[in-house]
Amino acid sequence: MATLHARTRTLLRRLHLWLGLILGLLFSVIGLTGSALVFYTAIDAGLHPAIRVAHAAPDLDRALATGRARWNDPSGKWTLEVTGDGGAIPARYYPVAAGHGDHQMVWFSPDGTRILRAEPWGGYLMSWVYELHMQLLAGDVGLQIVGWSGVAMLALLVTGVIAWWPRGSWVKALAFKRDAAPIRRLYDLHKLPGIASMGLLAVLVATGVLLALPMLVTAIFAPATAVAPKPVGGVGQVTVARAIAVAHHALPDGRVVFIDMPNARDLPIRVRLQVPGDPHDRFPGSYVFVDRTSGQVLALHDVRRFGTGTTLASWIRTLHDGTVGGLATRVLAIILGFVPSILFATGLAHWLSRWRAKRSFQPKK
């Protein structure tokens, strides 16, 4: 049994080593870009003074009209964001209504009369960092690579802990041996950050996997999905202001965050709201679908009505981006993003030291 246990630990150490060598650089890139994205909207605003304007009541309908005067694909869609800070109005323009790929990011003046800034998603620094973090700049293929690599990264973390697990004194196992040989100090510099951060890193990696591979979310949690209903038809055109009023009437305790305004009349308006108990303030999970012409509520998707699976799924993003506990956990998420780089650097240095030492003891032919 002891021999089997020793062989298992040896196997796990080798698996941990090779997973680290193969995935370490990717893990580092994802960690560092994740740290940069914790406050990415604030960083982006700091890099673009043009969108820092005096606060005023936002005129979303005027902004929509200004946007459509410049971009107005009949099958396109506008998404207006309600920030609540009274500054510039952020918006997204999708040339194809159902698409989630290439789109234009637009910032309007609060009165909606001027376009302060317009850039394609992925064409400016913070959106490029976002795409690198989520998709390795490789679209859907990159998203799959990130997702399944994350599964391997979880195995990397677990095998590291199992291979380290002390068989004797925990005090000695957790100590940093300052007077030890350099190769031993490298091991301690690799071991201690890994043990200290393993649990939180596992949460970040696991939630990242679920964000990259939504089919796993469906398989594990079976959350209810917000399905757009067919419109009832009619005449006229519902304004943004009226759609918001209708949504507020349907969910009086909800806070409007996004409004999807399709150009086509045969698609409904979708208002996205945060209701009490929904943990994410920017990407909540409740929706009100409003008929494009009549203003009737076509469907209501309230995350509080759909059971445990939907509730658990709603926590994935806020656990991943650090917003779960406010400023303190966001700062912690930034710090954790640097840990994979530390682990990769110290692990690689330790392996190279062992490899050089082993070569030096080999007899010359």
Structure notes:
The chain crosses the membrane at residues 17-43, 145-165, 194-222, 331-352. It comes from Sphingomonas floccifaciens. InterPro entries: PepSY-ass_TM. This protein is an alpha+beta fold and 365 residues long. The protein is 53% helix and 13% strand. The protein is built from twelve helices and eight strands. The chain has helices spanning 2-37, 40-47, 60-70, 125-135, 139-164, 170-174, 182-212, 214-221, 240-250, 307-313, 316-321, 327-361; strands at residues 77-81, 89-94, 104-108, 115-120, 255-262, 269-274, 286-290, 297-301. It has an eight-stranded antiparallel β-sheet, covered by helices on one side. Helix 1 packs across helix 5 (139-164), helix 1 (2-37) packs across helix 12 (327-361) and helix 7 (182-212) packs across helix 8 (214-221). The radius of gyration is 25 Å and the shape is elongated.
Summarize this, please?
The protein is α+β, with helices and mostly antiparallel strands.
